[in-house]
Amino acid sequence: MLPDSTSSSTAVVRRIITTVLFFAAVSLSCFVLYRASNSVGLRFLNSFEPSPPSFTYVTSPVHEEAPQDSAENRLDRVLKDASMQDRTVIITTLNEAWAAPNSVVDLFLESFRIGDHTSRLLNHLVIIALDGKTFSHCVVVHTHCFALVTKGVDFSQEAYFMTPDYLKMMWRRIDFLRSVLEMGYNFVFTDADIMWFRDPFPRFYTDADFQIACDRYYGNPVDLVNNIPNGGFNFVKSNNRSIAFYKFWYSSRNAYPGLHDQDVLNKIKNDSFITKIGLKMKFLNTVYFGGFCEPSKDFNQVCTMHANCCYGLDSKLQDLRIMLQDWKQFMSLPPYLKRSSMPSWRVPKNCSLDSLRHYDQPGKHVLQG
Ligand SMILES: *[C@@H]1O[C@H](CO)[C@@H](O)[C@H](O)[C@H]1NC(C)=O
Ligand SMILES: *[C@@H]1O[C@H](CO)[C@@H](O)[C@H](O)[C@H]1NC(C)=O
Ligand SMILES: *[C@@H]1O[C@H](CO)[C@@H](O)[C@H](O)[C@H]1NC(C)=O
């Protein structure tokens, strides 16, 4: 079951709508028969005298959505449509502040288009909209959208770091991703403020259940002590170990009240439970998976760049735009200059200034949503 607290009331509404649609469809077909009867002389149908049906209600959902269609079925359909052959999908979550025109999601999608052979990956990207307005915007700009709306929580606004709504949003995400694993899909989870410049799949470890990008990377992919992971980007294989791990991670929120998923991950990453279930965890090198905390230095190797270590949406947008320009500039170079010139990012600019002013602890995932 999807842990969707709105699902029961949604199901009731859906049933009512489906019933209405059913009768609309029935009355439409009666109407059609009635009209037909006039021409072929089946006068007995006249007694039905159907009221004119409301055509606008008779739409494809009558056929597409069975009465028992649940959130889980709908999610399964979206995932199936977006899935690669090996049941891998790319997932991001989005709320209204990041989905507005000229906001984060536009830059995110643009990065796929201007990246090096990354536009085909858009076919495998599922955007999880955390509110209704975001869902409406999603279907305009992207093919694979799913609405994950949580009753009683407004995720639509910019959720400031560590406010109660921010924490709820982060934990909702972990619980949701667990259900994706249970449905048998591997996923790359990516924050929308991560720019995709190259296909990351060739850089993933083949022998890890859970691999995660870092704010700070200390050179050893299995070093649990020093590496500082960032929950905004990870690749997780669906298996019993990863499902058990996500359940453990989610339930650990009770042991560390007030902490968000990433800080709790730092607490539990060395827990004996993980050894017991045999989960293989690895950390991704910032050479390929960089960010403002620790930028990838090599334009010829970078796969993704995260606007981490950044406080405030305006600063983030500003620096993301500069970063996309830097990339376009690089892509326009002739091949020999791509290899020989050593371009560097002009960012972080405002992000670094602001993060120094507001928040100087390194290695934190500063703002989401
Ligand atoms: C998970 O464990 C069950 C029971 O031990 C087993 O039947 C199943 O095949 C496992 N699934 C995966 C994906 O490893
Ligand atoms: C991690 O766990 C191992 C084995 O339980 C232990 O030896 C080590 O000290 C732990 N490291 C940290 C930083 O807790
Ligand atoms: C970026 O920083 C500069 C210098 O502090 C400031 O003038 C400008 O308004 C900032 N821009 C944004 C979008 O925050």
Explained architecture:
It holds the Pfam family Nucleotid_trans. InterPro entries: At1g28695/At4g15970-like (IPR044821), Nucl-diP-sugar_transferase (IPR005069). Keywords: Membrane, Transmembrane, Transmembrane helix. The chain crosses the membrane at residues 12-34. This is Nucleotide-diphospho-sugar transferase domain-containing protein. With 369 residues, this protein is an alpha/beta fold. It has one domain: Spore Coat Polysaccharide Biosynthesis Protein SpsA, Chain A (Alpha-Beta Complex), CATH 3.90.550. Helix content is 42%, strand content 13%. It is built from 13 helices and ten strands. The strands form two sheets. A seven-stranded mixed β-sheet has the order 3-2-1-4-7-6-8. Strands 5-10-9 form a three-stranded mixed β-sheet. The longest helix is centred in the first third of the chain and has 34 residues, at 7-40. The radius of gyration is 24 Å and the shape is globular. Residues 1-10, 19-65 and 359-369 have low confidence and may be disordered.
